[in-house]
Amino acid sequence: MTIYLLKRLLIGIATLIVASLVVFLMLEVVPGDPARLMLGMNTSDAQVDLLREQMGLNQPLILRYLDWIRGLLRLDFGKSYTYSVPVIDLIRERLVVSFPLAVISLTLSTLIAIPVGLFAAARRGKAGDTAAMAVAQVGVAMPNFWFALLLVYVFAVWLRLVPAGGFPGWGNGIWPALKALILPALALALPQAAILARVTRAALIEVLNEDYIRTARAKGMPMRAVLWRHALRNAMIPVLTIMGLQFAFLLAGTIIIENVFYLPGLGRLVFQAIIQRDLIVVESVVMLLVAAVVLVNLIVDLSYALVDPRLRARQ
To answer: Which InterPro entries match (predicted)?
Structure first.
């Protein structure tokens, strides 16, 4: 198990190094002068040169990369030239919105998808299975921004149960903040639940064809007990993989939903920073998200061994 963990850590570190090079170089080849774009096209060359010097754009490429990496290792992400505040402060402000939203969305998605997948697998080929997978297919195909607008109309405009958008902040109370995240979480969770339900069903059907499942059924064990005690645990590896990918997406890939609900999250921060060519913000936030993905994948890999003891024996 220790060797397995060390291998995964080394792979994660190598991934971060490669990702840092890709992120840095990709932003370097983007056309346009960031300093001139920030100051405006009518700004004098002297002012542009001064800003370029302040941003370190006059230094050689390799020195700028190494300075950036040293700052990341110290959790010193630099200062945003658009907002004139440290990047770490911007990340903290946005993370308290994006992280709870991702956790709530993934929790809702899992609570919906696992029972639906079990229901469909237990009734494979029957009307219940067909109906459940048809609904899941609709959820996969439905654009989440359209679903978000529908939720706003029904629950915020028509029923007036929750706010239509904005985020009051956790300082104004937990319940008002949670109410502001309910509709965005639902808009994100239901399409993800549709995907997860289909994966759960497919994994369970594969496990249900195993000999030990037939033996349990032959001994008179009820189908419900077979599903929950034996089949589900052995089918969890692909399910955990999808859940890990979904959490990474929910943490960083919610730009559209954050704009629909006017949420100040990480996705919206990156989008605004790209438009404003605030390179230090883009580089730092993207690397933070890459690190989060690597960490989630490491947790998922470790969970494989916890779920399936056979994997521990192979390490």
So the answer is: BPD_transp_1_N (IPR045621), MetI-like (IPR000515), MetI-like_sf (IPR035906)
Phi, psi of 271 (to 5 degrees): -60, -45
**Structure tokens belonging to residue 233:** 């645990």
Can you list the domains of the chain with their CATH numbers? 2-73 (no CATH), 94-314 (1.10.3720.10)
User: What backbone phi and psi angles, to 5 degrees, belong to 95?
Assistant: -70, -30
Dmax over CA atoms of the chain, in Å, equals: 85
Specify the pLDDT at position 32: 65
User: Mind listing the pLDDT tens digit for each residue in 255-310?
Assistant: 788 888 888 888 888 888 888 777 788 888 888 888 888 888 888 877 777 766 66
Torsion angle of the four alpha carbons 6, 12, 14, 16, in this order, in degrees rounded to the nearest 10:
-150
H/E stretch holding 293: helix 279-307
Cα-based distances in Å from 174 to 19, 40, 105, 177, 259: 36, 42, 17, 5, 22
8 Å CB contact between 108 and 193: yes
Give the per-residue pLDDT at 37. Answer: 67
C-beta separation of 217 from 283 below 8 A: no
pTM, two decimal places: 0.82
Residues of the chain with pLDDT under 50: none
C-beta separation of 279 from 51 below 8 A? no
Helix (H) or strand (E) holding 103: helix 87-122
